[in-house]
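From the pipeline queue, job 12 of 40. The input is one protein chain; the requested action is below.

Action: predict structure.
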Amino acid sequence: MRAFLRVIVLLLAAAVLPAALGAPAVVGALALNEPRSDGASPPPAPAEYDPALPTAVVVVGGRGAVVSDTLAPYEILATTGAFNVYTVASDANPLPLTGGLDLVPDLTFAELEDLVGGPADLIVVPAMPDVGRPTTKPVTDWLERQANGGTLILSICNGAAVVASAGLLDGHRATAHWLRLDEWADTYPAVEWDRGTRYVDDGDFVSTAGILSGIDGTLHVVDRLVGGDAAAEAARAIEWPHYDPEGAAPIEESRLAPSDAVVAFNTAFGWDRPHVGVQLTDGVGEIELASVFDTYGQSLAVDTVAVGPGPVQSRHGLTFVPRADGIGLGLDRLVLPGTTGHDALPGMEPVQRPHEEAGFAFDTVLEDLARTTDAATARWTAKVLEYPVDDLTLEGPVWPWAETIRPVALALLGVLIAVGVFALLRARRRRRETG
């Protein structure tokens, strides 16, 4: 019995130090989804409205949304020129998008009603961090009202769970991110969840698989509502290499693999992860912004923060608020997304411009992630993004060895401390017995 207890103590000792030192890093990584912009919310650009065009809106929850789920559909729809396109939320406060970017919504729900005079024609629902919680109730209540008016709802990634939590997908087919499909199947059993496809069209509800599969789903909706030529032109405009006008392309049914442990090491033991400032500039493309914040953010190996002197307007009129001016942040480097030709903030070096060359915006960022962290992290990130990388050059260190060795070293240290304590107790007992 004593030997058994000793083994239990040693196991606990091996776990205590990695857990104690890894937990703060996990909390810090997740804290990027909290809004940090200071001061009053700047007014967004005036919402122009053409009653001859259908209205498409991207809804953002009170606790924010996934950055690519939000910005990629927005840019695609705006690029066509065939819609009134807005971001909407329950109130006008800046909302956090994953990775460290704050968005000022174009309209509140009430302002949209006043502007349009009825339900939107298309609602895009991105993944939200608080799906199924009471904080999403303003969104789900609004979705129910809109759906009753005949709106087409397009969910991106785990945005399908937001729609399902409103009861709107009961009896319908849908899909979502591979990483949480089993969870959604248990939580929302009245929905028929599909795997191995980039999107599912089930009449009034179109749902997509993970993150960048939302591009295929959005292009499909453009094809359905406007026409194939408009969808093909939008795909060319964003340089999306995987557009398939024939329908939803099948994808490999991803599952967690041993190599995916890389994200756990990066999250808990990446204590020296680089701090990267992402400079906001007027006219930057929405997908260009998403490529930086989502690639680095999903890797959990790089901390990103939006920096700049003040609010900016993106290529298609979205308002973003920097979280800092960049001064005194101790940044390791500055990334300047987009092809706008803006100068970098003074005193910020080195400066990286990932979009100077033609191509889909995520390509060069994923290649940089492999080069500056490791190939395993880049491949995990691409897997989460659901972006094929066979044509990319993901060259860099094979594995984050330092992040992997740290918990092992801490576990050994904990065991050595426990063994030392056992030895001291044994010595004291012997002294008492012989004294």
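Job complete. The radius of gyration is 24 Å.
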